[in-house]
User: What shape does this take?
Amino acid sequence: MKNLLIILPILFPFLAAITIAVAKFQEKKRNVFAAVSVILNLVFVVYLSHHMPGGKLHLLKINEFLDIYFKIDKLSIFFSSLVSILWVFTTIYSMEYMKHEGKEDRFFSYFIATLGITLGIAFSGNLITLYLFYEFLTLATFPLVIHSGSKEALESGKKYLIYSFGGATLVLFGMIILFSLTNNLTFVPKGILNNVSDSNIYLISLSYLVMFIGFGVKAALVPFHAWLPQAMVAPTPVSSLLHAVAVVKSGAFALIRITYYIFGAEVIRKTHSAGYLTVLIVISILMGSFLALHQENLKKRLAYSTISQLGYILLGIILLNESSLVGGMLHLINHAVIKITLFFCTGAIMYTTGKTEIGQIAGIGRQMPITMWCFTISSISLIGIPPTNGFVSKWNLALGGLIDGKAVFPAILLLSALLTAMYLLPVITEAFFKKGDNVILLKKEAPKKMVIPIVCITMITVLLGLFPNPILVFVREIANELI
Amino acid sequence: MLIDSFPLLTVLLLFITASIMPLLKKSNLVKGICIISFIVSFVMYLATLNRVLKTGDYFYRVGHFNAPFGIEFHVGTVECIMGILFTFVAIMVIWNSIYNIHFDIREDKIPLYYLLVNILIASLLGIVFSNDMFNVFVFIEIGNLASCGIVVVKDKKENIKAGMKYLIMSCLGSGLVLMGIAFLYSITGHLNMTYIHNELVKNYIHYPRTILITLGLFTVGLGVKSAMFPLHTWLPDAHSNAPTTSSAILSSLVLKGYILFLIKVLYRVFGIEIIRNFPILNIILVLGCLGMILGSIFAIFQKNLKRVIAYSTVAQMGYIFFAIGLGTELGIIMSIFHIIGHAVTKAALFLCTGAIIQGTGHKNLDELKGVGKEMPYTLGLFFIASLSMIGIPLLPGFVSKWYLALGSIEANKTLLIAVILASSLLNAVYYFPVSINGFFGEENLRGKIYKSKSKSLKELLPIIILVIAMIYIGIDSQSIINLIKTGLV
Assistant: This one.
């Protein structure tokens, strides 16, 4: 019976979401309720990770494939804690931010429901459960993307749906082929394909490629990335959380799951499918950076940067060695905290001054020093200058690339870091060193509810850079099991 | 035993109650009689299924004449499941019609309408159970007229036009079926399916061309009636113009009766051994694929909500033909499972659409934007039902697709998975915008008042029950599939 607790963090947000939708709280009460439920959910996740690692639950077993199965292992603890912590900050941030977007009740109910779905992805014990929650994720985030309800928003929402469902369909295709070979879709470290004969290697290869591209759609793999920059019409908390943390990282997380828990590194090496995928990933890394250079809109620039940074994570997954996997997973965390700060800062600027383009923000560093300092710290971390956290993950990735004997990967990483500097540093120089047209030097920070999360996450970023070891050890343990 | 004669009794009951209806003046009484007759039939089928599961299939001799001379009913698991399905969906649809039939049909025609409904379902049940070819033909003809009747009953210009088109196509279909039966009779000298099969097994080698022609006649004839892809042209007009109740019955039940007869002809009368020597299954498979893809593509371009759903029916019938065309045991099982899943889902979709059209007075998709604010529950139910069509896991649509894909791998036709998936993606393309434009979009929602056109819970209850049944079919798919499997062996 104790195992039933696993569904608590998945189910509770749904209940909270329904309560918000139905109860019609006053603003203050709703904010408190939302914050309490998100924090409570974090407590549940922490409790589960401490008290029942290895817990399993077959919630609903219909037949051998339709089997809703949850399992807590290290990887799910890793992902669920990341998501839950960042969700708390985002909830606090959105309370203030969403005031000028309106329709807050609707926002908060879908927003908190999405937390439950993302945790569902984290705790999924087999591919079909993951797939189910993956579809739900699309459905629940869709209303968030089109929150403003404008024509433009509906247009990008449509694009988001088409891309996501297209991807999910590819995943289904791979899943069916795989199931016909194995009759089993459970996640097991090192994969479930040990007993499959070599004659089916072609089918396995097809299935892996299709699934990688399918999940890659959510992880903004070029050429399936076009939905991500468009989805920036969503309110900033949504962009930050969903398009830097929950949605895209769910894609990356799912890729770790299929690569190491379904196929296994050995089998993938045999299929030689990784080669084709590496090309796509390298293109993602470079193209994302180059396109980011040309964006005048701050949010769009960050969106393209996300495409490039996600490429790092995917590269870490596909290189199939321990060091690169460690690097990839570290980057999954680091990019999440960094990108969320960057988005929050952009949102804070938008909220207080209404400025969205890089050309407009001259001198804003003097007006909003705390926000811009946090922005600067995060930018430096993203570029990967030691001793920041971005450096730690990129170091491991580069090592992983070298183990394979290919110096080209470190070279690409360096080039991309250079490009990252080129698209982020101008924002900082613009903000601090240029004088604005109308010289208002009054200090006017965003409201506290927005500044506090920014500062907190920046502190986490700094701490992750200074003391990377606890996380590094944990991630190494995961990687050790897998390779 | 009395239970043995339940299948015959239900058919008779529905016919007899139908004949009483025009004598009654009060429409409420007619509605009551109609729904009670279906509830009684439903209970009888439950009892029959129970009996069949305990003691096995049996042949019921009508009038105690022995087989080659008398008419037989074959009562097996699959037949009972179909009986339960047909009566269940009919109960829900008729329950729903009680509240809103007067919007579609003039008061004085209501008894006539329910008479036609009763006759139609009775004839479908006759097709399902009868083991005699000519008997089936008679039921087909009765059903034919009754189904055209429930299309034209609305008495508008486009209804009559659609009804005529339906009648002509349908009669053509029955004619072909009759010729097929005549051919079989000339080869075998029997009309009883079991006897025909025994004769055919003995001497099919001598009549390869005749059998090929016969198979063609049955496939095309029944294909017209069950909207096989290039023969579907009557369907969108008939289904979209008919009153809501009729659309739901036509789309979810009538087509299914004919397709079940096709399955019976192919697998019981001829048998897999014989049809494997002919290309017929591959042709059905290809036409099924075409239907799945092109039906969905046509649906995307429709402006009228009811037509969208009607074309979606063409696509869904494609799945059933696809399953039949696979020619494996799994294929037949899935064709029957898809019949069940689709019947319940499509009925729910049509009833929701009917409620929406009636509530807002608009039919076109453009005008229905923002309807989610006015009728949140109805559109919500529509959304859940459409999720099954799109193939979200746990719902019956997903189960069908999954097993069909496995079936095509099993039959060494791996490429066909792409067709299944492409079709489900296309389903998403036309089903999602309805709900999205209904629920979201600032411009759409402006000026709409929340729940202003909402239906009362009482009126929504039949749709809710259909949706619950649909979810149940998805979740309990394993036991339903096992049940069908036991029925086939």
About this structure: The beta strands of chain A are 56-61, 67-71. Chain A touches chain B through 31 residues (CB under 8 Å).
